[in-house]
Design goal:
The protein is of the alpha/beta class and 336 residues long. It has 3 domains: 5-114, 3-Layer(aba) Sandwich (Rossmann fold), CATH 3.40.50; 134-199, no CATH class; 207-291, Orthogonal Bundle (Arc Repressor Mutant, subunit A), CATH 1.10.10. Helix content is 28%, strand content 20%. It is built from 9 helices and 15 strands. It has helices at 17-23, 101-114, 116-131, 166-171, 193-201, 233-244, 249-256, 260-272, 297-304, and strands at residues 5-11, 30-34, 41-44, 49-51, 56-60, 67-71, 79-82, 94-96, 139-144, 147-153, 157-160, 173-177, 189-192, 219-220, 276-277. Strand 5 (56-60) and strand 6 (67-71) form a beta hairpin. Helix 5 runs antiparallel to helix 8.
């Protein structure tokens, strides 16, 4: 995933092919269609909307799936209505004309400006994955033309200059420094190493779950170190099941009612967040157990970045077209 991918939810449209072609016009980021629940931004069909009581807007969905209700006063992501909007009582926060190239471009640029922190997390994760074999220090300063634009504490806090954009990040020099250089300027945007990887892994287009997780018993290890808003019901259900008892992949799939692909995707995210394990020695003794912080860069790398031969994607190494992927957060056991 060399280019950050953003997710657009399309709501109320009878035909979507034309809209999808509009989303493909971007270069710095790639937009892809997803369900409204998983979307970073929404395009809503203005002609399918109608005003409802209490400030709600109803959107007729296709084909024959009823009506989706939006509370325009509580939107947490960029939401654009296509013009025209026949109901005069519907007052969309943002709108655009899908038949005007300038209007479409303006809408996408505005959405990308709001989502800039997410874009930079995805871009930084891609750089971490690309440079992974070289990242052996505890802290890195990212410099561009002699200016500090980022601080990456491996396994800890990450800070980025809010004015930096993706092309600049890709040109930055990574300077290894000791743990004592881990302070982040106050005006930088801050996030965590775990959140960056979580966001990245959840958007990968290949199966990232190591093979042994389909064969061995799975154990609950620790709560993911990511904001609660990033976790879905499926993550909680799987953690609850494994917190009760270790289970095999097939047993877990039966108990939670997910398809094989959906369970593999859920487990992959939890795996890279250090929340599950196949090693009973590393399993949590209780639901509130936390994984201790690494005391040194070498300890962190041993825990999060195993030797290349242990990497579940070692078959891709050495190929120019291999996917950029983060290394596991948990080293494989000596035997499977």
């Amino acid at each position: 995933m060399n280019v950050p991918r953003l997710r657009m939810g399309l709501v109320g449209f009878h035909e979507e092919d034309y809209l999808l072609s509009l989303l493909r016009t971007r270069a710095v980021v790639l937009w892809e269609r997803t369900s409204p629940a998983d979307a970073d931004a929404l395009w809503v069909c203005g002609e399918s909307s109608r005003a409802l009581p209490d400030g709600l807007v109803g959107i007729t969905t296709w084909p024959g799936r009823g009506e989706l209700k939006l509370d325009l006063s509580a939107l947490e992501r960029p939401t654009f209505f296509t013009l025209p909007v026949p109901d005069p009582d519907v007052r969309p926060p943002l709108s655009f004309d899908p038949r005007s190239a300038a209007s479409v471009n303006s809408a996408l640029r505005r959405a990308e400006a709001v989502l800039q922190p997410l874009i930079m997390k995805l871009a930084l994760a891609g750089e971490i994955a690309r440079l992974l074999p070289q990242l052996r220090a505890h802290t890195y300063h990212l410099a561009l033309d002699g200016r500090l634009i980022g601080v990456v504490n491996m396994g800890g806090t990450i800070g980025l200059d809010s004015s930096v954009r993706v092309p600049q990040l890709k040109q930055a020099m990574w300077r290894p420094l000791p743990k004592t250089a881990n302070s982040i300027p106050q005006h930088f945007l801050t996030t965590s190493f775990a959140e960056v990887l979580w966001t990245y892994v959840n958007r990968a287009e290949i199966d990232l779950l190591p093979a042994r997780y389909r064969r061995a018993l799975l154990y609950f290890r620790a709560l993911p170190r990511v904001p609660q808003r990033l976790m879905k019901d499926t993550h909680y259900v799987v953690l609850s099941e494994l917190g009760a008892e270790p289970q095999s992949f097939d047993q877990l799939r039966h108990n939670v009612g997910l398809s094989e692909e959906a369970l593999a995707n859920t487990l992959a995210a939890l795996y890279y967040a250090g929340a599950i394990t196949t090693n009973p020695v590393r399993a949590a003794k209780g639901a509130t157990r936390r994984v201790p912080e690494a005391e040194s860069a070498s300890e962190l790398r041993q825990s999060m970045f195993p030797p290349e031969e242990s990497h579940p994607f070692s078959s891709f190494l050495g190929r120019e077209d291999r996917p950029t992927i983060p290394a596991p957060l948990e080293p494989p056991p000596d035997t499977e």
